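Reply to thread "Modeling small-molecule complexes from scratch"

Following up on the discussion above, here's a worked example others can learn from. I took a protein sequence and the SMILES for zinc ion and predicted the complex. Inputs first:
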Amino acid sequence: MAELKPRSLPEPTPETQHFWDGTRAGEIRLQRCRDCGAIYFPPRPFCPECGSRDVEVFVASGRGSLLSYVINHRPHPSFDGPYAIAVVKLDEGPTLLSNIVDCPQTPDALVLDMPLEVVFAEQNETITLPLFRPANGGAS
Amino acid sequence: MTGVAIVGAAETTELGRIPHLSQIQLHADAALNTLADAGLKPSDIDGVATAGATPTDIVHYLGITPRWVDGTSVGGCSFMLHVRHAVAAILAGQADTVLITHGESGRSGVGRGGYRGGGGSSLAGQFEGPYGGMGPTTMFTIGVLRYMKDYGLTHEQLASVAVVQREWAGRNPRASWRDPITVDDVFASRMIAYPFHKLECCLVTDGGGALILTKAERAGDFPQPPVHILGTGESVETPMVSQMQDLRSSRAFRVAGGEAMRTAGITHSDVDHMMVYDAFAHLPIWGLEDLGFVARGEAGPFIAEGNTRPGGALPLNTNGGGLSYMHSGMYGMYALQESVRQMRGTAPAQVEGAEVSLCLGVGGMFAASGCIVMGTAATA
Ligand SMILES: [Zn+2]
């Protein structure tokens, strides 16, 4: 198999640094509003529900479920395709885009609403990406 | 009615593969055809709106001295927003005669320039970029499996969107793809991003189009029958498809569509003809449901049963749409052009007796929407 190129990687900003520090530490860090209680993502230093700046970072469970996905069939330099691009619904409520690993990349194996758990994939010294696998260790 | 009308409308002389024209010349070719359509010269224009180029590029290139400009750029529906903004400007006396232009060398990439895609530090660059998305084919489409599970949409119904639109394209000599297709042909076409086959994805072509708007009371001074702007709407939601409030529905569609119908003072039964920007086969389904033409989960069967095809109750995407007519990248202009042709009574696949047309655009991947309701002279 041809060598895969590195993925396009995030360039953290001051407002998102805590999230990327979290993934390096093996945590999904979400934010919660101290005024209205809303839990939200992606990171920002205020609540998108009520506008309050009084928000806090907390460690999420790392569990979620498979909300939707596509299986890309066109060649991508960073992926040994076809591969799924998935929207994961975290148990805390927010959704985020990711890939599903330890699982055949087929419609039969990728069942909507299946429980998922985060795995942390180190890309380099500063960036670790949150990927997801079927819960209970990826048995498929 | 708003009191503003479209008095000039045209596309580029050619559509499809136009490697001998640069992107700005596609704007200009469309603008010159539109000026001719309205019997005007560039010096008659005092307001300019465009996207994909700056208003500065366009006024300099065409030799216009504007007193009003709008460079709103929210993707392929930008031209719907330009129409809405132009109506307000004309009614406020900020411009008398507004030219809106589009040109895009989407296939040939001649003089395309400009900025495409998000950087690694944008929110989309950080939280969507790393996961292997390859633009609209993999991202615009990502909510469809969720919709299928929740509402029972079948692969056959999704494919039928492409089949029906090809039927319309067969009646349009300028459409890129005109040969009839079946659901099985759709399934046999290459898998692009499951569940989307090639025939459920839009074309990539070159072309352009332009519009001229002025006060309806002046409309009698122009050679073409006026097409009245009855109502308008616009909205935006999120730059990241993974952050939509609901993957199965576009908030921007709901807001823009509701606003356009409210300001037009129409109900669903008033709409004789409809355009829904179709970069992919699911967009007409989202549009029909988000604007309330059918209930949740009913748009797939509604299309598959033939309600939007020639002779159906609600003719939809009668030029063949982005799936078969053309799609340069910012397709909204071509949807507007088809609504104008239908209201003028000059469309190749004319809907007999149509007096009200609703034209719904999308920008980005459900990031933005603009909606325009147009009518014939009888509605004014
Ligand atoms: Zn709050």
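What I'd highlight from this example: Residues 114-118 of chain B have pLDDT under 50 and may be disordered. Chain B has one domain: 4-111+203-379. Questions welcome below.
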